[in-house]
Automatic annotation (TrEMBL), chain A:
Annotated protein name in UniProt: Manganese/zinc/iron transport system permease protein
Organism of provenance: Laceyella sediminis
Transmembrane region(s): 6-26, 31-50, 56-74, 86-107, 141-160, 172-196, 202-221, 228-247, 253-272
Record flagged with keyword tRNA processing: no
Membrane topology field: Multi-pass membrane protein
UniProtKB/TrEMBL annotation, chain B:
Name by which UniProt lists this protein: Manganese/zinc/iron transport system ATP-binding protein
Organism: Laceyella sediminis
GO molecular function: ATP binding
Record's keyword terms, sorted: ATP-binding, Nucleotide-binding, Transport
ABC transporter domain segment(s): 9-241
Domain of life: Bacteria
Stored InterPro entries: AAA+_ATPase (IPR003593), ABC_transporter-like_ATP-bd (IPR003439), ABC_transporter-like_CS (IPR017871), Metal_Ion_Import_ABC (IPR050153), P-loop_NTPase (IPR027417)
SUPFAM superfamilies, sorted: P-loop containing nucleoside triphosphate hydrolases (SSF52540)
Lineage of the species this protein comes from: Bacteria, Bacillati, Bacillota, Bacilli, Bacillales
Amino acid sequence: MNELWIILTGMLVASSCALLGCFLILRKMAMVGDAISHAVLPGIVVAFLVTGDRHSFPMLLGAAAFGLVTTLLIESLRKSGVQADAAISVTFTSLFSVGIILVSLFARQVDLDLDCVLYGEIIYVPWDTIIWNGLDWGPKAVWIVGTTLVLNALAILLFYKQLKLSAFDPAMAVALGIPVAFFHYLLMGLVSVTTVASFESVGAILVVAMLIVPAATAYLLTDRLSRMLLYSVLTGCLSAVTGYFLAGALDASVAGAMTVMAGVFFILALFLSPRHGIVTRWWQRMRLRRDLASHGE
Amino acid sequence: MKQKHAAPVSVERLSVAYHKKPVLREITYASPEGELIGIIGPNGAGKSTFIKAVLGLLPLTGGTVHIYGQPYRATQQLIGYVPQRESVDWDFPTDVLDVVMMGRYGKLGWFKRPGKPDRDIAMACLDKVGMADFAKRQISQLSGGQQQRVFLARALAQDATIYFMDEPFAGVDAATEKAIIQVLQELRAHNKTVFVVHHDLQTVTDYFDSVILLNMRLIAAGPTKETFTVENLQKTYGGRLAILPRQFDLTMMG
């Protein structure tokens, strides 16, 4: 049963990250996802110090606020003439390091250590359960990450057309009267909440991989956005499952193994994708050349 | 909503600046209705900026924009927009029909999804630009001219009254140019007002009823016959006007 909870947590994290990751990639904002997932660290620590609980609603809100602050900071730096990538790096490294200092300062008083924040402790997930009415309702992490997955899926289902158009052609979206800025901050807010909800299972660093890698894999596999969303969730879940067993076989970090598997699937897609794959294209070229040669005879 | 007596587009003392550098200065202009209007001027004259400012895509540093006498926000449904082709990523995972359907989004409100009527309209618009056979084609597999026609079909699907097109003729093949101009003439026949940012001075008198000559300031605006003159062009382009349009060569030689 414990194994199942761990795998389920991994799959939920992978799915909720992958859905958002698709839009981050299409908006060429992969780095912003990276930035937010790091910059929420001070938010996590502050909220933790206040509530003393790693899974709480205020904590999600605090992190979402920090995520939006990050986005605002990046944008205001960029507007004042700093290059885009420099603006992103400056913002998230500063906020992340503030978070590191906070963790190390208060590490003795509170049960929150750097290892946990950075690399996650997914194997402890099954033991931190919700007890309500004398009943065991399952691990807290599953509930929290599950809720963010529902939240993300709901937002994408409801606002699919707005999110799609703002990603493809933001100028057109504005001209049509779609509140592009609202959807921008909605997406950033969801990324922040998802990052915080996931950080304990996969860690603040590896959550970036789950945000970007499955979505990047799916991008290689299809030419339709709806299928890209589906495939990103599938490869994310597959990475979680295979990663768990890889970690068992190697006796290594679960989160690390899950991320490695996500990377393996990405490389497979890069080489073998039906339309964009490197090997596929090489094979098509060879066949074309052979056909031309045989026609020439 | 639509006041017949007010001009489709009127701007008063419109100014726009990028990073404090002025791009458009104090433009005052009122457009005629039901005409094809060319926006002409050298590179960096602020032609695209003018369109974007009227569409509310850029913050104004001064002045006002009115559509049929109303502020822009109230009249969004009346306006169709064809951005520059290069402004979007053509590797985006979507197909031609889907892009044209995006033109319908403004009419759908917050939660409604495009349905069969929207699909039918989109197909009809694709047919008008001669792209119906490409409906299911992935957009990355289109030529430049085909991309432009898809954008035009998307604007038609908006079913607007006033259209703004940012260099629709830039880098397209002859067949596409012909297809586009046919669509423009059909729009005019339906009393739509169409603004087109245009570069090819040779075709201005053939294509447009009126022109706006722009070089950061409004140099001249009015019916093509009276406004598109050597004198005005020299004012617009300064010393940069190397080749005069053909018709002027002929008149000078004749």
